[in-house]
Amino acid sequence: MSANLPASSGAKIPSPRRLKNEAKKLRRQDGELTQLAALDLAATARGWPSYKAFEREWRKQPSIDRRHFLVTLSAQWSDRLNSARGTMQAHVQLSEPWWNFLSLAERRQIDTLSDFHIVRADRSRLAATDEYTSWMSCAHNLSKAARKLVFIDVMRVLAASQSKAIAAFQGDPHRMLSSHYPNRDHETLWWDPATGLHFILNEPYQIDSDKQNKVLAAREMVAHTTQEWTIHNPSGTLAQLIAPMRNEPELMVLVQRSNALPARFRQIVFTDNEGHQFDIFT
Question: Please, which residues have CB within 8 angstroms of residue 140's CB and are 6 or more apart in sequence?
Fold first, then answer.
């Protein structure tokens, strides 16, 4: 199997954590094995002469930049109809540990990301609480949670409540936040703690610009639209940052920050049960 071949074969190298878990199983089967011997056996079973040789090869991988903080999100799926199940991971590079800019309480307020809990007090590992019902559902939610974490790291914003957004907008502008408006889809509310700016992230699949511009103008709102990045579905949606016209200077600061998102999103690495890298959106 390709999972048992070294990196020179072109296969994705499994993580050290995976080999350490395999070594633990070997030690449970043979109580006389030392930890180092078990690690060597786990490595040789996958095609390396020793665990140290495996670890040297793993550190050479360019796909994950270890100069920055790395967090791994994992999720399981089970398709009972087709008798299939599995696990997938998203390896996310952050500029610093996420708890430096996102408290536990704040993380719990963020849709999708709040579905992932800390694994055994290790904040570099987050796992989905519930099992997803299909591979596609798992991939969608896992990738969305990973991108939200990167979005917050780059933009340095937090989730905002509807009531506080309405207060910041000096009232609900023609019920914009409490009822659907043209091209509203996958809308989330955010705010910038540094400036107090509240804004809408709208991620529609398509836009009727003439229709939407009239609505936004009537409500004294301004929107910046991009197809360069999106959190919800990179293969289909686009992103709009929407805020009151009076806050356009602050909004444009966030727009400038968002220019870093495409490259940062591309750095997210997805792996399957065997540690093989794969692409969710192609």
Answer: 233
Distance CA 64, CA 60 (A): 10
Give the per-residue pLDDT at 62.
Answer: 54
Token pair of 224 as six digits: 């910046």
List the structure tokens of 116. 């992932």
User: Amino acid identity of 204?
Assistant: P
In DSSP terms, which residues pair with 116 in a beta bridge?
Answer: 128
Sheet holding 198-202, edge to edge: 158-159, 188-191, 198-202, 239-244, 221-226
* Predicted structure pTM score: 0.76
Alpha carbon distance 281, 136 (integer Å): 11
| 16, containing H or E segment | helix 16-29
Residue 252 structure tokens: 């444009």
Write the pLDDT tens digit of every residue in 206-255. Answer: 898 899 999 899 889 999 999 999 999 888 899 999 999 999 999 999 99
Contact 154, 257 (CB under 8 A): yes
For residue 65, what pLDDT is reported? 46
Contact partners, residue 65, CB within 8 Å, separation at least 6: 93, 267
